[in-house]
């Protein structure tokens, strides 16, 4: 539904160049909620502003619903008719709501409809329908100053839906809200995603947001996407930074010459018997350093950090046993990509045969 390829944005100001996006390939499937995470300055807002061509990328392409937006002329307020038209089908929700204080709630929602050229009656009908959809039918005649933060954001969402978009972009739309209001707004986004088949691309720095509503996620660093995939894929990726943050398990090794292993299991799979089998089969003492269960992307996931006596090389066979049981096994400390980790991985694969 949304595809960017080689998306690059270089800002030039006062003789200085800032590469905000450095070749971003993003792929958001139709009907999914996709979260982009990353630290401040990573390029998240730039990415979302390039997706609807509020910013014109320096290089690369953006395709939304099969249409190459980068091929359309204009930018920002000087967008061509074709670009405006395409953009009206991409809703955008902002962190600070961006409502006009002099207009009623209804008139705020009507604004994009005015731009689209709908007549007064049609605008009114549509605006009330949208306000009903976001649970604010009774606030049509209120002014933004009379609303709570959560209500303002509902107005922002109603306004974003005015052009019957297929895609909704959201830049930190809940970060100005308290946790409970955040939950209700996320619930609304999820409902809209399901009811209207809306594809949602959202930016957040809150892992909870990803856990609650995202199907897929990407991590941005320094203008690049360093990890991406469905939440389930990420959780199943050894060494994934997003998975670790989505689902942290703590626990320090009790001493040197120990092997710390993170075991992830999905759904009903119980680790407990596997751990005791492991202990019996190989006659080793296993300590559980930490464990947690959580619901991620609507599915139960468990994580357990265990400690085996001896160094990694001595534990290749027991670790292979865990993998054979269908558990996802991540050896802590063996940073992916290093020679040691690669060698260890090869040994484990070998051991599992
Ligand atoms: N209009 C601009 N002119 C010059 N540099 C810019 C401009 N907009 C963004 N940048 C720079 O581009 C980089 C990425 O900024 P961006 O706003 O996309 O980050 P972000 O990930 O959204 O951060 P935050 O989490 O703080 O919102 C930063 O280094 C920023 O200073
Ligand atoms: Mg930002």
Question: What keyword list fits this structure?
Answer:
353 residues; alpha/beta; Rossmann fold; Alpha-Beta Plaits; 2 domains; six-stranded mixed β-sheet; four-stranded antiparallel β-sheet; 14 strands; binds adenosine-5'-triphosphate; binds magnesium ion; MetN_ABC_transporter-like; ATP binding; ATP-binding; P-loop_NTPase
- Straight-line distance between termini: 40 Å
Shape: elongated
The whole-angstrom Rg is 24 Å
The major sheet is characterized as: 6 strands, mixed
Order of strands, main sheet, comes to: 6-7-8-3-9-10
Helix proportion range: 25-40%
Under the CATH scheme, the architecture of the largest domain is: 3-Layer(aba) Sandwich
Count of alpha/pi helices: 12
Task: Give the overall pLDDT as a whole number.
Answer: 88
Tally of DSSP β-strands: 14
The percent range for strand residues is 25-35%
Structural class: alpha/beta
Q: Which ligands are bound?
A: adenosine-5'-triphosphate, magnesium ion
How do the SSEs run, as a string of H and E?
EEEHEEHEHHHEHEHEEHHEHEEHEH
CATH class (first level) name of the largest domain: Alpha Beta
Q: Within the CATH hierarchy, at the fold level, what is the topology of the largest domain?
A: Rossmann fold
Fourth CATH level, the homologous superfamily of the largest domain: P-loop containing nucleotide triphosphate hydrolases
Low-confidence sequence ranges:
none
Protein name: ATP-binding cassette domain-containing protein
Keywords: Amino-acid transport, ATP-binding, Cell membrane, Membrane, Nucleotide-binding, Translocase, Transport
InterPro entries: AAA+_ATPase, ABC_transporter-like_ATP-bd, ABC_transporter-like_CS, ACT-like_dom_sf, MetN_ABC, MetN_ABC_transporter-like, NIL_domain, P-loop_NTPase
GO molecular function, one term: ATP binding
């Amino acid at each position: 539904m949304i595809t960017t390829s080689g998306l690059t944005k270089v800002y030039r100001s006062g003789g200085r160049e800032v590469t905000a996006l450095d070749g971003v390939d993003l792929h958001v499937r139709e009907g999914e909620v996709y979260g982009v995470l990353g630290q401040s300055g990573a390029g998240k807002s730039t990415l979302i502003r390039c997706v609807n061509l509020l910013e014109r990328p320096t290089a690369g392409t953006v395709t939304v619903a099969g249409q190459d937006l980068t091929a359309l002329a204009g930018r920002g307020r000087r967008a061509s008719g074709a670009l405006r038209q395409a953009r009206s089908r991409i809703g955008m929700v902002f962190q600070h709501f961006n409502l006009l204080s002099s207009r009623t709630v209804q008139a705020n929602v009507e604004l994009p409809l005015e731009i689209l050229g709908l007549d007064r009656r049609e605008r009114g009908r549509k605006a009330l329908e949208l306000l009903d959809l976001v649970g604010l039918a009774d606030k049509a005649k209120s002014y933004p100053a009379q609303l709570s933060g959560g209500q303002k954001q509902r107005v922002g969402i109603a306004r974003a839906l005015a052009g019957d978009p297929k895609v909704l972009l959201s830049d930190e739309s809940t970060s100005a809200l308290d946790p409970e209001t955040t939950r209700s707004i996320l619930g609304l986004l999820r409902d809209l995603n399901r009811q209207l088949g809306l594809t949602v691309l959202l930016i957040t720095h809150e892992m909870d947001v990803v856990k609650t509503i995202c199907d897929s996620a990407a991590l941005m660093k320094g203008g690049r996407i360093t990890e991406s995939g469905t939440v389930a894929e990420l959780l199943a990726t050894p060494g994934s930074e997003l998975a670790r943050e989505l689902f942290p398990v703590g626990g320090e090794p009790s001493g040197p010459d120990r092997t710390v292993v993170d075991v992830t299991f999905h759904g009903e799979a119980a680790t407990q018997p596997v751990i005791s089998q492991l202990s019996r089969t190989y006659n080793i003492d296993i300590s559980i350093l930490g464990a947690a269960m959580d619901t991620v992307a609507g599915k139960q996931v468990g994580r357990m950090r265990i400690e085996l006596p001896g160094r990694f090389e001595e534990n290749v066979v027991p670790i292979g046993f865990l993998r054979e049981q269908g558990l996802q096994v991540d050896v802590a400390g063996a940073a992916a990509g290093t020679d040691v980790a690669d060698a260890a991985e090869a040994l484990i694969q070998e051991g599992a045969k």
